[in-house]
Write a structure and sequence with these properties.
Structural class: mainly beta
Distance between the termini: 21 Å
Number of helices: 0
Largest sheet: 4 strands, antiparallel
Oligomer: single chain
Radius of gyration: 13 Å
Order of helices and strands: EEEEEEE
Number of strands: 7
Number of domains: 1
Shape: globular
């Protein structure tokens, strides 16, 4: 097992692939960029989608769009002037 990092875009919705049964651990600010860390089995050949939602503080949330999503964490960018809340589809 290894911990891999995946850069995220500052976009409402995004999807990318990780090895099957990978576990999303956290999202942090790394040098002004959002980075997701996941625990993965690097020998796993099967891949699966990870669906992420990023919502800025104060932005409108349609509850129906969040069905099945789990909160990961909150990340600050731009010296705390931008605050994003990250969710993952389970």
């Amino acid at each position: 097992m290894r911990i891999w990092k995946y850069p995220l875009k500052v976009e409402d919705d995004q999807c990318f692939m990780i090895p099957f049964n990978g576990e999303v651990l956290s999202v942090i600010n790394q040098k002004g960029n959002l980075v997701l860390y996941a625990l993965v089995d690097e020998t796993e050949t099967r891949m699966e989608d990870v669906n992420i939602k990023i919502i800025g503080t104060g932005n409108w949330i349609d509850e129906d769009d969040f069905i099945g999503y789990k909160f990961i964490n909150t990340v600050q960018l731009a010296d705390g002037n931008l605050v994003f809340h990250i969710f993952k589809l389970c």
